């Protein structure tokens, strides 16, 4: 599983997984999971300023409503673009340095 935990997407994924895991353990049916996810979303439970509690609640509700619950969390928290390779980053830094020298 290729998960980027650095920064906001990783925090969002972590909080969502933790919340959904606590719901999944306490329930036996999909209807119970949806009800508990709705209850979770009705209260602000995250004090972390870098994560939007409403977004986490939405992720948890989406996972509770799907058959492939954990896959929903993973798909919605996946990076939107492929991370840069070290070589690509080095090329970009050299190009930026060369541009700065010319100006």
Topology of this protein?
Blueprint: H1 7-26, H2 30-41, H3 53-65, H4 69-77, H5 86-102
Helix pairs in contact: 1-2, 1-3, 1-4, 2-3, 3-4
Can you offer a commentary on this structure?
α1 (7-26) crosses α2 (30-41) and α2 packs antiparallel against α3 (53-65). The protein is elongated. The longest helix is centred in the first third of the chain and has 20 residues, at 7-26. The relative contact order is 0.15. It has helices spanning 7-26, 30-41, 53-65, 69-77, 86-102. Helix content is 69%, strand content 0%. The chain contains five helices and no strands. It has 103 residues and is mainly α.
Overview in brief:
This protein has helices at residues 7-26, 30-41, 53-65, 69-77, 86-102.
- Cα separation of the termini: 44 Å
Radius of gyration from CA coordinates: 19 Å
* Helical content (DSSP H or I, runs of 4+): 55-70%
Share of residues in strands: under 5%
Provide the succession of SSEs.
HHHHH
For the largest beta-sheet, the strand count, sense and barrel status come to: none
Name some characteristics of this structure.
single chain; 103 residues; mainly alpha
